[in-house]
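Now for a specimen:

…
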Amino acid sequence: MALTKEKKKSLVDEFKAHEKDTGNPAIQVALITERIAQLTDHLKESPKDYASRQGLFKLVGERKQFLTYLKRTDPEKYQKVIQRFDLRK
């Protein structure tokens, strides 16, 4: 259920600030959002998988913290991420 290397690389390339950037909050939000999408699809097929559900809730909280930080520090990049992934805020 992990992200493929190609998908991860494309997300990093889209949101990186410089050549060796991998820890940018926008990149983290992008990667977490993709993992959330995968877990959501998995839970539609396996609704009784409570361990995955707990992991999903943890990821949603982590993404919320990154988005709060991004909104405070770089509002323009925040808007770009929100629009790209069609998130509610």
